[in-house]
Amino acid sequence: MKNLLHTPARLLMLSMLATAPLFSACSDNDDPTPDEDNEQITTVTYTLTPLSGGAPVTVSYRDLDGDGGSAPVIGSLNLAPNTTYTGVVTLLDETKNPATDISAEVRAEADEHLLVFEPAPANLVTVTRTDKDQNNLEVGLQTRLITTGSASGTLKVTLRHQPGAKNGTFAPGSTDVEVVFPTTVR
Predict the structure, then answer these.
(1) What is the pLDDT of residue 7?
(2) d(C-alpha 97, C-alpha 15), whole Å
(3) Beta partners for residue 62, in sequence order
(4) In whole angstroms, what is the distance from residue 178 CA to residue 61 CA?
(5) Residue span of the signal peptide, if any (predicted)?
(6) Which of 28, 118, 121, 170 has the fewest Cβ atoms nearer than 10 Å?
(7) How far is it, in rounded angstroms, from Cα 130 to Cα 63?
(8) What's the pLDDT tens digit per position in 122-153?
(9) Residue 107 backbone class (left: φ over 0; alpha: ψ -120 to 50; beta: rest)
């Protein structure tokens, strides 16, 4: 019996039991705060009103079933040349009944969100964000858009989710929604 207690297998088992608590210790990455989730956005509407008066121009993107499934419905943006518009972006989650106004959430968490507008070609239109968060960084739910001569291309609108990292640029964070609107100025 005495030899059985001192066998190599028995010593190995005792050493494994003695070191087991070291392998089950908590990691340094334990954080009770859950990660900030991206917003669920099914509908993006961009309404542009000419400063000189006239009817507003509205373009929208709608994808009720999200990635995969049915293709989204994407409208075309048709603008007048040499015109300045005030713009308002509206974001909705229509998977809920009633629909959730994500614009209100973005406004409430403005220091975590940035709308980015990228025309192609770059001189197609000029978009300036006119609303700011509590840190004086632009948000983009409200804009000024200026057209020049007749042209066509696209306007990409991206909502960046940047909790704890917003610095006024596209780079930090992740994308909540990205839409490319065919755009014509004529």
Answers:
(1) 52
(2) 59
(3) 43, 73
(4) 10
(5) 1-24
(6) 28
(7) 27
(8) 999 999 999 999 999 999 999 999 999 999 99
(9) alpha
